[in-house]
Amino acid sequence: MPTPADVRRRYRGAAGRALMRARDTFQATGRGAASILRPTVDQESGLATWNGHGTRLRSMRIAMVSIHVTEPAHAFRFYTEVLGFETTLAVPESGVFVVNAPGQDTGLLLEPSDDALGDEYRSALRAAGIPVLVLSTDTLYSDIERLRAEGVHFVGDVFSDASGEAINFSDSVGNLIQLHQGAL
Predict the structure, then answer these.
(1) How far apart are CA 129 and CA 168, in angstroms?
(2) Which residue of 111, 147, 156, 178 has the fewest CB atoms within a 10 Å radius of its CB?
(3) pLDDT one-digit tens code per residue, 22-59
Protein backbone atom coordinates (compact mmCIF):
# COMPACT_ATOMS: atom_id res chain seq x y z
CA MET A 1 0.00 0.00 0.00
CA PRO A 2 1.38 3.44 -0.89
CA THR A 3 2.39 5.73 1.93
CA PRO A 4 0.74 9.14 2.36
CA ALA A 5 3.89 10.76 0.93
CA ASP A 6 3.66 8.53 -2.19
CA VAL A 7 0.06 9.54 -2.74
CA ARG A 8 0.76 13.24 -2.18
CA ARG A 9 3.66 13.10 -4.63
CA ARG A 10 1.62 11.33 -7.30
CA TYR A 11 -1.81 12.90 -6.74
CA ARG A 12 -1.55 16.51 -5.75
CA GLY A 13 -4.44 18.64 -4.54
CA ALA A 14 -8.04 17.55 -4.12
CA ALA A 15 -7.64 14.19 -5.87
CA GLY A 16 -4.82 13.17 -3.55
CA ARG A 17 -6.73 14.26 -0.47
CA ALA A 18 -9.82 12.34 -1.62
CA LEU A 19 -7.75 9.20 -2.23
CA MET A 20 -6.16 9.52 1.20
CA ARG A 21 -9.61 9.88 2.83
CA ALA A 22 -10.81 6.84 0.91
CA ARG A 23 -7.76 4.82 2.01
CA ASP A 24 -8.18 5.90 5.64
CA THR A 25 -11.90 5.14 5.61
CA PHE A 26 -11.33 1.74 4.05
CA GLN A 27 -8.70 0.90 6.68
CA ALA A 28 -10.94 2.09 9.52
CA THR A 29 -14.29 0.66 8.36
CA GLY A 30 -13.61 -1.93 5.69
CA ARG A 31 -15.92 -0.02 3.35
CA GLY A 32 -14.80 0.66 -0.18
CA ALA A 33 -13.84 4.03 -1.57
CA ALA A 34 -16.89 4.34 -3.82
CA SER A 35 -19.02 5.83 -1.05
CA ILE A 36 -16.32 8.39 -0.24
CA LEU A 37 -15.73 9.44 -3.85
CA ARG A 38 -19.40 9.64 -4.89
CA PRO A 39 -20.12 13.15 -6.19
CA THR A 40 -22.95 15.31 -4.88
CA VAL A 41 -24.53 17.61 -7.45
CA ASP A 42 -25.97 20.97 -6.45
CA GLN A 43 -29.26 21.12 -8.39
CA GLU A 44 -29.23 24.91 -8.78
CA SER A 45 -25.67 25.40 -9.98
CA GLY A 46 -25.09 22.00 -11.58
CA LEU A 47 -21.71 21.81 -9.83
CA ALA A 48 -20.42 18.64 -8.22
CA THR A 49 -18.35 18.13 -5.07
CA TRP A 50 -17.11 14.94 -3.48
CA ASN A 51 -18.76 14.70 -0.04
CA GLY A 52 -18.18 18.39 0.50
CA HIS A 53 -14.47 18.16 -0.35
CA GLY A 54 -12.40 18.70 -3.40
CA THR A 55 -12.57 20.75 -6.54
CA ARG A 56 -15.95 21.75 -7.85
CA LEU A 57 -16.54 20.57 -11.39
CA ARG A 58 -19.45 21.25 -13.71
CA SER A 59 -21.47 18.05 -14.00
CA MET A 60 -22.08 16.75 -17.50
CA ARG A 61 -25.30 15.44 -18.94
CA ILE A 62 -26.24 14.09 -22.33
CA ALA A 63 -27.99 16.95 -24.10
CA MET A 64 -28.72 15.35 -27.47
CA VAL A 65 -28.06 12.18 -29.42
CA SER A 66 -28.95 11.39 -33.00
CA ILE A 67 -30.12 8.48 -35.05
CA HIS A 68 -30.03 8.27 -38.82
CA VAL A 69 -33.44 8.10 -40.48
CA THR A 70 -34.43 7.75 -44.11
CA GLU A 71 -37.30 10.27 -43.96
CA PRO A 72 -37.09 12.83 -41.11
CA ALA A 73 -40.70 14.09 -41.41
CA HIS A 74 -42.06 10.52 -41.38
CA ALA A 75 -39.78 9.66 -38.45
CA PHE A 76 -41.01 12.75 -36.59
CA ARG A 77 -44.63 11.62 -36.97
CA PHE A 78 -43.74 8.10 -35.81
CA TYR A 79 -41.81 9.21 -32.74
CA THR A 80 -44.40 11.81 -31.68
CA GLU A 81 -47.73 10.26 -32.73
CA VAL A 82 -46.98 6.56 -32.21
CA LEU A 83 -44.33 6.50 -29.47
CA GLY A 84 -45.63 9.61 -27.68
CA PHE A 85 -42.42 11.63 -27.70
CA GLU A 86 -42.61 15.40 -27.34
CA THR A 87 -41.41 17.96 -29.87
CA THR A 88 -38.26 19.80 -28.89
CA LEU A 89 -37.62 21.40 -32.28
CA ALA A 90 -39.34 21.04 -35.64
CA VAL A 91 -38.18 22.90 -38.74
CA PRO A 92 -39.92 20.93 -41.52
CA GLU A 93 -38.63 23.11 -44.36
CA SER A 94 -35.06 22.19 -43.33
CA GLY A 95 -35.81 18.59 -42.42
CA VAL A 96 -34.66 19.20 -38.82
CA PHE A 97 -36.59 17.42 -36.06
CA VAL A 98 -35.60 16.90 -32.44
CA VAL A 99 -37.85 15.00 -30.03
CA ASN A 100 -37.56 13.88 -26.43
CA ALA A 101 -39.23 11.27 -24.25
CA PRO A 102 -41.87 12.76 -21.93
CA GLY A 103 -40.32 14.11 -18.75
CA GLN A 104 -36.77 13.93 -20.09
CA ASP A 105 -34.64 16.73 -21.50
CA THR A 106 -32.26 14.70 -23.67
CA GLY A 107 -33.02 15.49 -27.28
CA LEU A 108 -33.14 12.84 -29.99
CA LEU A 109 -32.16 14.34 -33.35
CA LEU A 110 -33.80 12.50 -36.24
CA GLU A 111 -30.78 12.87 -38.49
CA PRO A 112 -31.40 12.73 -42.25
CA SER A 113 -29.52 9.75 -43.62
CA ASP A 114 -28.72 11.46 -46.89
CA ASP A 115 -25.05 10.59 -47.11
CA ALA A 116 -23.39 7.27 -47.80
CA LEU A 117 -21.76 7.01 -44.37
CA GLY A 118 -25.01 7.53 -42.44
CA ASP A 119 -26.92 5.15 -44.68
CA GLU A 120 -24.19 2.51 -44.43
CA TYR A 121 -24.07 2.79 -40.63
CA ARG A 122 -27.86 2.56 -40.24
CA SER A 123 -28.13 -0.33 -42.70
CA ALA A 124 -25.27 -2.29 -41.11
CA LEU A 125 -26.80 -2.03 -37.62
CA ARG A 126 -30.19 -3.11 -38.97
CA ALA A 127 -28.68 -6.07 -40.87
CA ALA A 128 -26.85 -7.19 -37.71
CA GLY A 129 -30.03 -6.93 -35.65
CA ILE A 130 -28.56 -4.24 -33.38
CA PRO A 131 -31.03 -1.65 -32.08
CA VAL A 132 -29.95 1.97 -32.42
CA LEU A 133 -31.96 3.00 -29.39
CA VAL A 134 -33.22 1.28 -26.24
CA LEU A 135 -36.39 2.62 -24.68
CA SER A 136 -37.20 1.73 -21.10
CA THR A 137 -40.70 0.94 -19.86
CA ASP A 138 -42.38 -0.35 -16.72
CA THR A 139 -45.26 -1.84 -18.71
CA LEU A 140 -43.67 -3.91 -21.49
CA TYR A 141 -46.62 -6.11 -22.42
CA SER A 142 -49.23 -3.34 -22.44
CA ASP A 143 -46.88 -1.17 -24.51
CA ILE A 144 -46.46 -4.03 -26.98
CA GLU A 145 -50.26 -4.32 -27.30
CA ARG A 146 -50.66 -0.58 -27.78
CA LEU A 147 -47.90 -0.38 -30.39
CA ARG A 148 -49.24 -3.43 -32.27
CA ALA A 149 -52.63 -1.71 -32.40
CA GLU A 150 -50.83 1.29 -33.97
CA GLY A 151 -49.41 -1.00 -36.67
CA VAL A 152 -45.84 -1.18 -35.36
CA HIS A 153 -43.85 -4.11 -36.80
CA PHE A 154 -42.09 -6.17 -34.13
CA VAL A 155 -38.97 -8.15 -35.02
CA GLY A 156 -38.92 -11.43 -33.13
CA ASP A 157 -40.50 -12.18 -29.80
CA VAL A 158 -39.96 -10.96 -26.26
CA PHE A 159 -36.64 -12.24 -24.91
CA SER A 160 -35.21 -12.31 -21.41
CA ASP A 161 -31.76 -11.96 -19.91
CA ALA A 162 -30.30 -10.91 -16.57
CA SER A 163 -31.24 -7.26 -17.22
CA GLY A 164 -34.95 -7.98 -17.81
CA GLU A 165 -37.21 -8.51 -20.81
CA ALA A 166 -37.12 -6.81 -24.20
CA ILE A 167 -38.42 -6.86 -27.74
CA ASN A 168 -37.21 -5.14 -30.91
CA PHE A 169 -39.39 -3.23 -33.36
CA SER A 170 -38.98 -1.19 -36.53
CA ASP A 171 -39.30 2.57 -36.32
CA SER A 172 -40.60 2.59 -39.94
CA VAL A 173 -37.62 4.65 -41.17
CA GLY A 174 -34.91 1.99 -41.25
CA ASN A 175 -33.97 1.43 -37.60
CA LEU A 176 -34.47 -1.25 -34.99
CA ILE A 177 -35.56 0.08 -31.61
CA GLN A 178 -35.57 -2.02 -28.45
CA LEU A 179 -38.30 -1.74 -25.83
CA HIS A 180 -36.90 -2.93 -22.48
CA GLN A 181 -38.33 -3.56 -19.03
CA GLY A 182 -35.77 -4.00 -16.27
CA ALA A 183 -35.71 -6.98 -13.95
CA LEU A 184 -37.56 -6.37 -10.70
Answers:
(1) 9
(2) 156
(3) 555 555 555 444 444 556 666 676 665 655 555 555 57
